[in-house]
Amino acid sequence: MKKTITVIKGDGIGPEIVKEAMRVMDRVAEKFGHTFTYQEAAAGGCAIDQYGTSLPAESLEKCLNCDSVLLGAVGGPKWDNVDPAIRPEKALLTIRKEMGLYANLRPAKLFPQLASASPLKQSIVDEGIDFLVVRELIGGVYFGKRETKEVDGELKATDEMSYSEHEIERIARVAFNTAMKRGKKLISVDKANVLDTSRLWRKTVERIASEYPQVELSHMLVDNTAMQIVKRPSQFDVVVTENMFGDILSDEASMITGSIGMIPSSSLGEGTRGMYEPIHGSAPDIAGTGAANPVGTILSAAMMMKYSFDMDAESDAVEAAVNKVLDQGYRTADIYTEGTKQVTCSQMGDLIVENI
Ligand code: IPM
Ligand code: MG
After folding, report:
1. Which atom of ligand 1 is nearest to the CA of 93?
2. Mapped to the 3 state alphabet, what secondary structure does the chain carry?
3. Could you confirm whether domain 119-256 is CATH 3.40.718.10?
4. Which of 202, 223, 245, 270 has the highest Cβ tally under 10 A?
5. What's the pLDDT score for residue 59?
């Protein structure tokens, strides 16, 4: 197969982790007889420096004309005070919106080799952590009307949160379909005791549930969910929630696996084209030191193969290689513990390539 991939390296550790993921993809292409062609697109802080905007039109064009997008990370303190309209994060939000990527899948899965890295008590970890957060990605308060204006002699800021039924229906279907392929247990998270958007969310998810009689659906309030994730994470299989709740809960979920650097994500819309990125940020403090962990990005590339290119064997080969390297005791700085072998970002890439 021939696939064109738009590559956004971004800021901080972005370029170094994406480089390793591309080497892994090249190895997969060589082994399985595919051709991956990369087109680089500038976005984020580096694009602000070079073009005066975090998302040049040409970059967006490349995202809309490819088979999928692989992204490293964008942003950093250097651009904290730029105009909100051109902030690095704005590039990410615009790409998501313009590509129609309403479903963001973020797995929270403990690698057994890294169990001791979890901040949770061992007895809780031993019950198992393996769930998936399905986050609505192009609606809610992130994309509502916003303004800051003077009212009665002081500034007043407003961010509007809205959801319409079709936005809830489509993400609910993704969640139910995902649950069907996993443990058939879906927890829909909302704040229906307070918010209208949540009440509509709950009602709509329940309506869609009738199409999926095999899935066991329950509802959980978002504050309670935040608590349950650290109290008994083993109860979760698939979690579906709106944009901002999903943003917050997915950070919490990733942290309890002890290895935010290991976790990939996929963002999909109606077609097969998606955007794939590690869930961690650009970590400017360690950029260029070799301390970055490329595994989250490498596993994101593996997700791309599976979900967008229908390359299951290829994706499995990458995951198996990652597991093998962990079994052999190799660790990047973020997951290093005594008795294991510390390697740099590029050495980790080498090891995974060698094992495919
Ligand atoms: C994420 C990030 C983004 C978000 C930021 C960078 C805009 O936190 O992907 O979770 O809030 O969606
Ligand atoms: Mg986030």
Report:
1. 7
2. CEEEEEEEEECCCHHHHHHHHHHHHHHHHHHHCCEEEEEECCCCHHHHHHHCCCCCHHHHHHHHCCCEEEEEECCCHHHCCCCHHHCHHHHHHHHHHHHCCCEEEEEEECCHHHHHHCCCCHHHHCCCCEEEEEEECCCHHHHCCEEEEEECCEEEEEECCCCCHHHHHHHHHHHHHHHHHCCCEEEEEECCCCCHHHHHHHHHHHHHHCCCCCCEEEEEEHHHHHHHHHHCHHHCCEEEECHHHHHHHHHHHHHCCCCHHHCEEEEECCCCCEEEEECCCCCHHHCCCCCCCCHHHHHHHHHHHHHCCCCHHHHHHHHHHHHHHHHCCEECHHHCCCCCEECCHHHHHHHHHHCC
3. yes
4. 245
5. 98
